[in-house]
Model the fold of this input.
Amino acid sequence: MDRRPTIADVARRAGVSRSSVSFALNDRPGLAEETRRRILVAAEELGWRPSRPAQALSRGRAGAIGLVLARDTDAIGADPFFPAFIAGIESVLARRGDALVLHVTGPADEDATYRRLAADRRVDGVLLTDLRVDDPRPALTRQLGLPAVVVGDPGGAGGLCSVGLDDRPAFAAAVRELAALGHRRIAHVAGPQEFRHARRRRESWQLAMREAALPEGPVVPGGFTAEGGATATRELLALAPGRRPTAVVYANDLSATAGLAVAQRLGLTVPGDLSVVGYDDTPLAEYTHPPLASARADALGWGAAAVRALDEVIAEGRSDDVALPPAELVRRGSMGPAPGHAATGTPGHATTETTVRSE
Done:
């Protein structure tokens, strides 16, 4: 058979009506057991498989969830967080044959994209990522009757279910260990401050600096990009010796990796002259030279948890907020004693990976 077998083909092979086939394949009562068995054998012999669109239509569902990313396509392709996050989504959807409808759009078209998804009933619900300050999307999805889950902290979820984690333990551990290694000038390369998670990471770094009784070092924008991280690092390393940081905590691994490379090109050693800490603990982090210390946030697990929460919202109309395990510092070779501070066997001067939990 050159085409995909249909219910009619199964009916002919089993010698029954199409309605009987539908009853058997959907496990509905009303058929003799022998008839049901004959139909299932015929379906197996023909290689019949259910049509996902037809099943979704019969259930009144699309069999898909939506993810709208209002970012530049190059930025998405370069950011290692999103492939891992999407892989986590697919780890749940693939098992049941549902689909992820991904839209990459500009901020000006974002509102219209959600409206089209709702009007066309192409998705059963959406995940809202990259939540911005005063983000209109939680209110928009409620207005559209489109089930939604916020990927981020509940403070900006507008009453929607949120799936997020606490950044603070990782930043506290990083600053505390850097301080123990003699660092007093610790800078931060921040993500775009219109994003709530970038702002929260900056605030977490500021809180950690206060808790360590350290003067707040310089903060420069890095934009979550390699180019932004490189530019920010050059700016920091051009400061006068008395102001130049001896350690930099970056808002993500992409900017941190670029910053590490810039420092080395300028003739500095890492961690001898400069300690570098990233965020996200992407797979590349342990393969840089030296391996990059970072905060592990488990993007794959985050994606899977977000889908499961959205499933509950779709089925029940609501779901409780989900607090994932806090981000943890993964200490690697890019952290070391401050220049002039003798190594005393502290755990920070290690080249092997160690995960640090902050209570």
